[in-house]
Structure formats: structure tokens, C-alpha cells
Amino acid sequence: MNFTKEISGDITIIKLSLVEASLNESDEFKAFIYDNCADVSPKMVIDLNNVLYMDSSFIGALVAGLKKVLSKKGEIALANISNDVMALFEMTRLDKVFKIYDNTEEAIKSLK
Amino acid sequence: MLLQKMLESAGFLVTKAQSVLDAMDILKDNVPDLIISDLEMDQLDGFEFKEILLSSEKYQNIPFLFLTAHNKEVFIEKGLSLKAIDYIPKGIPKEQLIAKINNILDTVKDQKDQSVNELKMVADRLNLKNVPTKNLKLKNFQIEIFHQTFQNHPGGDFIDLIRIDDRFTFLVLGDVMGKKWGAWFFSFTFLSYIRSAIRLCVFDGNLSVAKIMQRINQVIHVDDFLDDIYSTLSLVLIDDEKGEITYSGASDLPLLKYQTETNKIEQYKSKGLLLGFFENGNFNEQNISTIANDQLFLLSDGVIDYEANGVKKTDINLFINQLETLLSANKTFDEITAGIFNKEKYQVDDCSLIQIKRI
């Protein structure tokens, strides 16, 4: 599986096993986020620990997921972003759009 | 196991599943070019496997071959009615098997190429273009455009040059997040909004690129059709009379300025966020002064994405260093693009580079 989830209290933790997150997985990932935000005020942590490259299609899916979650008054926190992906987020100001934390523990704490 | 070895020795990458359920699990992460399935299996058989695939939009078009010891017509008829492409008998000689598989893969590729060519022909006939085919020369500036498609498919990058009058010209570079036809399709919606917003703002006497960006952002924000489609945008206004340039951007890559005096590239980073994501995109604008021979560059993300040794990377500094070296050696725009975007750099997306040179 490219994406797995675990539940911790009212928080869904989504873990990506992909090294390169790109067009091939973007639709599936968007659907995965949508499927996991059926509740009111969904809270999600997305663990990007394995991801070393992210293309614009996958970023688009991530942003669409955030918009969906925000529309339900929920929150998304990203964790364990690699230096290369973080540099891209900073360059395109997506670091101002997402809540970003060094690790999943801090991300979970921020949503509690 | 013998079949797997035969295919691997012929250069195919093979993933083996122990059952239909195992195969369905593998398909979640990896859609193959071809499936070869046994007819008789525990739990679910080959026919049931094919029926499951046919019910899925994602899997229904994967070429499918039955591997069977049966050659009775009833089996063949049932398989073919399930859109199986062919049967192969167990124990088929290697040469025949490989020839059959290559024929199937070649046919699928030919059909796909034919469909893409037909779509391209229709797009050309309708004059649907999201990148101008001509460069533009003004009194004080020369604008040159480089655009390269990804694997010969149209993509999400879009460019426009909007000449208001002899004095003012707008330059637009956007990139719809996505690839190939899907992104290409939506690029026209973004372009329509951008052209309209620029024209309407100019009619109202508004020539602030930050304010124009906000108008574009507002209208895209409320459009349900673009609800989960996003685009970056770089917007530049050239005042050809005064020789001035103003710039605003939405989650775009930095505008690069090469100064002839220093032979160095300076980055201008905008503050705006992705078009339409928030009601207020937080756009700023920067005035960029130029003297003769200074060169500005706008770029899409395909310019800085590449694949080396099977690993994909994003590296703007690598691109800036290459560009600086070529500019310092007084290379022309054509020489620069030929030097950077060639067979040695494996492209992973469509890419666009625009040069604005002060004459």
C-alpha cells in the first residue's frame, strides 16, 4: 500500500510509503484523504518521512485535501518533510499554507 | 516460476501474485502493462479475476492474457467475451510467447499514439494553444519563449503575452498542478479568467499587478469548476516607455535577474499564494529596474525538476548555476536552452522558460 492510516484518539495519521510522490499516485491520494474526512472537524497528520521527491500533481492533491479538510472545519499537519521537499514548499510559499512539524509526535500534539 | 524466468530473461519486469486477492493488492500500487493469468486458481478463478478488473475504471483496460491448459472452444469463447485479448497454452515455446506479448504491447502503444495524435489534430484545428508560437520585440525589450512538452503531450504550463498598447505589455506564465491532458484542459479556463481580469482592470485604469492578481484570485476562488484544481502564476507588466518592470506571483518560482554589470543572478521571490486557495492571496508587487543587456527569466517547475540515475530531483540552484555560466559566456537564448534542456537532462514534466532582455 502506498498510504496507510492509524487512528490515535480523534486524529487520523496517514503514512506515505512512497519515495517519489507524483502524478501516478495523486488521484488515489486525494481520494484517500477525502475518504478519511467524512467526520465533522477531521484532524489529520500526514507523515512524509519516506518522500524525497514530490511533483506538482501530488502537491495539487495535497492542497485539494487540505481545502476539503478546512471546509469541514478540520486541520491537517504535515510531519517529517525531507529537506528537498521543504525547500520546494518554502520556494512556493506552501509552508505558509500548511502546518508543518519536525515529527509526527509534535504534529499530533499540535492538533490536540 | 518457469514463465516468470522466461519473461525476465527477455527483459520484462515481472511481479508475481499467488492469488486473485494477492493480485488485487499488488494492483493498488502498481498498474502493469499486461496481466497474464491462470484460468484455474483457488478461491477465485481467472474468469472471476477478469470480471473484477472489468468492473473497475482503473483496471478495465489493462491488456489481459489467459494462460491455460484448456483449449476447448467454450473456455475460449467465455474468455474472449470478457475482453481477454488472447489465450496462451501452458508450455508455449519462449519465442512464441515473447512475440505474442511484444505484438500486444506494440498494438496498445500504437492505438494510444493514434488517439493522442487525433486529439492533437483536433486541438490544432480549433487553434487551441496555451503557449504563443511567436516571440515579441518591443522598443526596449526582447521577449523570447522556450516551451518543451513532456513526452510529446500538452501539459499544464500556459503562457500569454497581452499587448495593451505601445506602452504596456503583460506577460503571463502559469502552471496548472497536474500533467498532460488533464492539466492542459484546465489551463484554458485559467487563461480565460486571467485575460479577462487583466483587460477589465486596465479598462478601470488599474495597472497594479498585485491588484490584478487579487482580482484573478477572487474569481477563481469562487468557481466551483476549479474547486480542487490549482495553478501557480507569474505576472509581469512591462512599461516599454519608461523601461520599467513590475512583477507579482502566486506560488510561482522566483523571477531571476541577470545583471550584466556583475555577471550574477539575483532572485526576486513573490509572496502570493496559490491561485484561488484563499479568498485573499496576499499578493505583493516588486519594481525591477533594468539597464541595457540585463535579462530577466520566468520559469515553470519543469525547468528545475529532472531525473538522474533513476532518481527524481528538484534543484533550482543547479539551474541558476548553469544559467549564470552560459550567460557569462554571452550565449544566446537558443544556445542557453539547447545547453540546459538536452538529452543529458532527463525531463520529468513540461517546462517553460521566458527571457525578457533589455535592449
From TrEMBL, chain A:
It comes from Pedobacter psychrophilus. InterPro entries: Anti-sigma_ant (IPR003658), STAS_dom (IPR002645), STAS_dom_sf (IPR036513). PROSITE patterns: STAS. NCBIfam families: ant_ant_sig. This is Anti-sigma factor antagonist. Residues 6-111 form the STAS domain. Belongs to the anti-sigma-factor antagonist family. Transmembrane segments: none annotated. GO terms for molecular function: anti-sigma factor antagonist activity. It comes from the Bacteria. PANTHER family: ANTI-SIGMA FACTOR ANTAGONIST TM_1081-RELATED, ANTI-SIGMA FACTOR ANTAGONIST TM_1081-RELATED-RELATED.
Automatic annotation (TrEMBL), chain B:
Pfam families: Response_reg, SpoIIE. GO terms for molecular function: phosphatase activity. Keywords: Hydrolase, Phosphoprotein. SMART domains: PP2C_SIG, REC. InterPro entries: Bact_Sigma-Reg, CheY-like_superfamily, PPM-type-like_dom_sf, PPM-type_phosphatase-like_dom, Sig_transdc_resp-reg_receiver. Residues 1-105 form the Response regulatory domain. It comes from the Bacteria. PANTHER family: STAGE II SPORULATION PROTEIN E, STAGE II SPORULATION PROTEIN E-RELATED. This is Response regulator receiver protein. It comes from Pedobacter psychrophilus.
